[in-house]
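Late entry, evening session. Most of the bench is empty. Finally got around to the prediction I had been postponing all week. Sequence below, unchanged from the version circulated by S.P.
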Amino acid sequence: MLPSIRMKIAISVLLAVAVLVVFWRVGGFDFIKYDDGAYVFDNPIVLKGWSLEGLKWAFTTNLQAHWHPLTWLSLMTDSQLFGTDPGAYHLVSLGFHVLSVLLLFYVLTEMTGAMYCSAFVAALFGLHPLHVEPVAWIADRKDVLNTFFWITTLWLYLRYVRKPRVGRFVLALVSFLCSLMTKSMSVTLPLMLLVLDYWPLRRIAFQKQETAMAPSQPPAKSAPKSGKGSRKKSEKTRQAYAPSSLAISHRTTCGRLLLEKALFFLPMILSAILTLAVVQELDPSSSTLTNTVPSLSTLARSILGYAHYLLQAAWPAKLAIPYTALEGFPVGKTLFSLCVLLAISFLACRRWRKSPYLLAGWLWYLITLLPVIGLIKGGPGIQADRYTYVSLVGIFIMIAWGSAELMAKVRYREWILGAAATVCILCCMTVSWAQVGYWKNTVTLFHHTLAVTANNDVALNNLGFSFLEAGKVDEAMPYLLNAVRIKPEDSYIHVNLGNAYKEKGDLEKAASHYEKALSINPKYASASYNLANIYLQLNELDLCEKYFLKTIENDAQNFMAHTNLGAAYSRMGKSTEAIAQFRESIRIQPNQHLAYYGLGLEYMNLNNLEEAEYAFNKVLAFKPDYERAYCDLGTIMMLRKNYEGAIRYYAKALEINPGYEKARQLLAQAESSK
């Protein structure tokens, strides 16, 4: 085996081990009650695992304001294989992250020949604290999948560039399409392929052709003059550190390269239009296809965003999810940030020939952040750690290759660069290790967020929700009341407050908060569902029906809405409608007992004892300790004059619940009839 291959394998192993050391604890972490429910544990279609219904749904839904079918299919696969074990989902995300780190190292090494620089970039990508969020958050599976296909596309494109063949081009295009189907942030990838054509692939033929050596390669006079071994060692070091470029035998014009990317630009444009359409459908007041011109304040926030990510990359302190929104913008800070960005841009453009990696890395950073930096009205906010997952690779390239160039004439540069890189990587590992720990569960995560941010209504709301789910209503109330004080027009907070008041028995206040949530967001299914349940509890059946139908209109997969609407129809004496709702609930979620129980009661009312018996037996298959089903089966036996069978079922019901008075009375009746 060649020494260079052995070194690549050794570096790959070290990269994988370092990433696993930092992130392995996620295998014991819980779901985060912030989008993880929508993606996994509260999503009945995902929980079913593989199904034709799930396949169709994955390609047609815009849930969570994204069209990302491959992300849904990935989570469905996890559900099929691991059920609802959160640790397994975390480890799958970690696996994709490790693969992306190794693939990035391989692709950069193959493109540039600079193995150590490539290893340093891959290490920063895999271990930087800003990249903890996409790996440790199950709901962000879309980012780790997207980046995996993103880097895979670069590798397949490299293979095409080395040996242009239709098949290789098609494979790269397919990988790009897969990336778009995990998250639309990949729309910038065709532009990045053009950047890579400039450097390191050097495919662009400029008017003045240069045959200059790699920018950080030391001049001939600095090479060792004595000893064959010294020359060989110098050459080996140069190959490992120097930012060289792939030797491409053919160069072409920018026009031809643009034409070559035409098939990449078509899905890029379609994806951008689809994303804007999805955002507009979910929030008509936000984005439109014709009104996307950013305002002055939007431009200012974008400038601050670009500068802030650079600061966080250099000093990753007080990382949180989510960050509080920026109200207005400080003029002085904005102007300073603009000056910094312009200065870096000027330097990169100034050295576009001698140090092309500077412009390539800077464009990588600027272009890949475009979809999420806030320039598009209705798009995401300017700040979230996960948005830097791909983007910071450009900055890491500038640092790695720039350091090699600056140290080109320094004696013992390999030792100095190696030591500096090691210290930097160890610092990243230390901070990332601590950051990973905050993702253990919802409470630890959002307690940390409150510690490093101010007036964070999302963190307060999620903490309140977590305590509410744990049955700690009194502990939840202060967080929820503080959250609604900060953001009174948040429908999610009002629903959680409604749930808290409902648990405390104050149905009037609960209903008022649900109604407020619906006034803010008329399509909020949870608000209409909870309000319908209150009216069901109050036996106001017309209002109950109205809000359950509204819930189903906005969330057709809410099987409990169908079940409870069936119960309402049963009270209204509408047996046909009740049976239809129970059956629809069972179709959506077959492994449940309540819909089967309601179905059994309806069939008993219709004197269809066979169907009723089947339904009650299905109830016991899913909930063996459901005493009511045993009691009703006993009643069926009584109607058939099978008194021994009735006695057996009533006795079983009393065994489960000795205080079940109805079963005791029916048992006595059965024994006297025997």
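Two things to note before I forget:
The CA atoms of residues 298 and 503 lie 42 Å apart.
The two ends are 87 Å apart (CA to CA).
Will write this up properly tomorrow.
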